[in-house]
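Morning. Coffee machine broken again, so started the prediction first thing and wrote up yesterday's gels while waiting. Chain of 132 residues, entered below exactly as on the submission form.
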Amino acid sequence: MNEQQAGGRTRGGAVFGMLFGVNVVALVLLGVVLLVLLPKMAAVYADFGTRLPAVTATMVQVSQAPAAVVMGLGLLLAGQMALARLAGRGRHLVLFAGTLLEVALIVVVAFAVFLPYVELINSISGSNASGG
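Came back before lunch.
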């Protein structure tokens, strides 16, 4: 019986570790997109005079405060870990919900980064079609 309980804890610990790892990877990905990719894309959009949608302009403003981005992502992870610790048996659910939240954030940030790209491509292709 003790071996089964120990095996259950080990399996639960592995799931918790996996969810924690996914959370860390998602937060690192968000950080890289916000702090590295978004400012470069914003510069390209500015060079071409592309008007930024509100969501993109907001993300650009957020990315201009790297300390706040890092602190916000760190607090998000710390908050998840604190809630998971308080949840006891439901800790996996807390981390899973946090993972879903991070995936939603990744989708919003990706949308914010690449939405103006579509407008930029359309404007370039339209100018080439009329010019040729």
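Helices lie at 2-47, 54-63, 66-87, 91-131. Going to sketch it on the whiteboard this afternoon.
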